[in-house]
Amino acid sequence: MKDKVLKIMLFCSAVVLLLLMAGILYALISQSIPAFKHFGFFQFISSTEWNQIEGQEQYGALSFITGTILTSLLALIISIPFSVSLSFLIGELFVGKKIAFWINSFLNILAGIPPIILGIWGYYSLRPLLISLNIGHHGYGIFSAAILLSLMIIPYSTSISTTFFALVPMKLKESAYSLGATRFEVIRNISIPYIKKCLIAAHVFALGKVMGETIAVTMIIGNINYIPSKITDTGNTLASVILNQFETISDLKFSALFAIALLLFIITAVINLMARYMIRRVVL
Amino acid sequence: MPGNGKLHYLMNKKHLLELKNVSVSFSPGIYAIKNVSVSIKPCAITSVIGASGAGKSTLLRSINRMHELYPNIKLSGEISLDGKNIMEMKPIEVRRRIGMVFQMPNPFPAMNIYQNVLSGYKLNKIYLSKAEKDEIVEKSLQDVALWDEVKNSLNKSALSLTVGQQQRLCIARTLALQPEFLLMDDPTSSIDPICTNRIEELMYRLKDNHTIIVVAHNLSQASRISDYAMYLEKGELVEYDISNVMFVAPKDKRTERYITEQIE
After folding, report:
1. Complex ipTM, two decimals?
2. A98 touches B: beta carbon within 8 Å
């Protein structure tokens, strides 16, 4: 009897979650339709216009899509050397040792820092540093935002990558050691090639996670609505434009912002599904 | 039994492997190997027999310092190679001189057949010309009687081979580095009788230039292939003798009991 009750409860929570998900998707789609109808879907995603003057309203998402992709990819590039090295240390080199525990604890703390704190740090500490190095417009820009995002990616991708190191069969490593390989050679020639695809998937996962990051990015990206031509330019992302523009809005702008939210939803969902597919192909 | 190779080694008094009071413990007070002292005969096949958990594989793995991969495993006593304590040598050097073949074939999945044979060189950062590589690959695969079967598919994944072929590939990979000693941990347990025969023939050929220590769960195989045999029981070396002598007339009652049980 208890089993049956538990089964029903678990089933109900799954159904509630699915309904919630469907509700969110329905709201996003239904609210986006006026904007897509007014501008046309392809026109909306390929236009960089953002004019909110009444009677001349023009909204397009291209600069935000570009900004989102640029900041996320740049953040990913910055984070990869750190996350891969850290996962070596925790998952392979110092596995089971105290130092691995300390590094892990530090990463957990980093993962738990609320984005607003990173945003404040970015605004008051990182920005002056970038100004002194003459990077970005007064320290604002895609590059500055990417640094903050990379700090959010590192704990996440390190944690997933570390798990994958444990997947390398000991018998393979033993074979390599028995041939006279050093630890470094085993990591380089055996472990990494074995989990290469998983490591890529781990980072794609992390990319999906930070793509929608809003507050820290909004504080430092510059919030200018155009396509950046270089990484030090200011820009805007899908998430930060929603945050910045959500007040005092017309019906059309309201719908345009929902359309942007829908695009963000689709992009992150596709990236997450891609990462899951990659991991499933390698692990299973 | 002694071939030219053996004479050469004996004359040069080299390639001698000796264990003195070797004990291996997995945790304090619990020994997998207890006070084993033995001098391995060069250019011969020595089989290690004993029940499961007797310490056969542990003994084998301590000889090329594989035990060090597990920090909880402690070794005491001395293992010497040409009179030199292996613990004072670099593990890389020890492992290159003492090659190992495992129970289950374990080719490197990210490498093709050709690369698998040469993996020892890659892992040791030994750079070879294309001609040298080709020569080593062909010779090593011929040594294990695999060349004719794979010469047209060297670029294929090593995982595309049958289990028996994979095991021969792993032996070729070990032989490619030209080790003086071969430690084989029950290398035929996972393969069919035809492949087992091939590997036994190979071992017989290799002993001219290699000293082979093989863990054998199968007593008939041990008596078929080995020149010398050692019987381990609960981590202790009970008996070490010429195989024909030990299998026919064991000196220790414990060896006799084990052999009788296995035959029955």
Report:
1. 0.86
2. no
